[in-house]
Amino acid sequence: MMNLPKYLIAPILALTVIACQQNKDPKTTDTIAGAADTTQPDAAKATDTAAVDLPGDKPVPLVQLIVPGTSIGQTSLNESSENVHKRLGKPDSGDAAMGKSISVWYAGHDTTGNVTQMYFSRGQGDDETKRVKQIRVTSPFFKLNSKVFAGVPFKNVSGIYQLKKVATFTDKGSNHTLYDDTKAGIAFDADDKGIITGITVHEPGREAASTYLPFFSTLKML
To answer: From start to end residue, where is composition biased (Basic and acidic residues) (predicted)?
Structure first.
């Protein structure tokens, strides 16, 4: 090492340390961003702290967030079925007819566990891609805010949305009522005890119960 005056050694060392720190920072950011599409929901809770300010006590991480008329977690309305199936894997069950289809995923492939249901429809004109038109979840992992998610009393959504009773259906021997805020693009189904059993996001202005293929064959519009 060439001889340098002592008064220059300290500044040079300081600049070297700063440069090393700057090289490390992008790696941290890229790691979090790159893991967003591949991290499983349970693991994502520990890494994704981005939040949206909604009514409630605590912010909800984006990977868990329900946005009326837009998305649930990482799945968005009008996203292609190809992208969804690539991310979530092969559905456990489903149905299809007249360019429409339903895909169903059970947590752990257990039909008694939480379920994610999606309704797809082909576009009009030259667009033959099947796209997400409705998403329904029963897992409390997904939340509108810290107080509204599946499993809590239906009264928790009182005053937040303009909900109208639109249909009834039975599931696994239990009776359920579907409430929809058509303009906002959000619907809730609740059981006889007044507990939210599922939350559905749909396109604003389109009724949750008016799909060609309903999520439940027992659905009766009111």
So the answer is: 82-93
- String of DSSP letters for 30-96: HHHHHHTTTS-HHHHHHH---EE--SSSS-EEGGGBEETTTEETTEETT-BHHHHHHHH-S-SEEEE
Domain count, the chain: 1
Is residue 202 within 8 A of residue 188, CB to CB? The reply is no
| CATH at residue 190 | 2.60.460
| 29 assigned to some structural domain | no
- Strand boundaries in 140-194, DSSP class E: 143-145, 148-149, 164-171, 174-181, 186-191
Predicted TM-score (pTM) of the model is 0.75
One pLDDT digit (tens) per residue for the chain, 222 residues: 445 554 444 444 444 434 444 444 333 322 222 223 333 333 333 333 333 444 446 899 999 999 999 999 999 999 999 999 999 999 999 999 998 999 999 999 999 999 999 999 987 766 789 999 999 999 999 999 999 999 999 999 988 999 999 999 999 999 999 999 999 999 999 999 999 999 999 999 999 999 999 999 999 999
Full residue range of the structural domain in which residue 61 is found: 46-221
Let me know: does 136 contact 199? Beta carbons within 8 Å.
Answer: yes
Number of Cβ atoms within 10 Å of the Cβ of 173? 5
Token pair listed for 113: 């566990």
Q: What token pair was written down for 62?
A: 């984006």
Q: Is residue 28 part of a domain?
A: no
Which amino acid belongs to residue 93? S
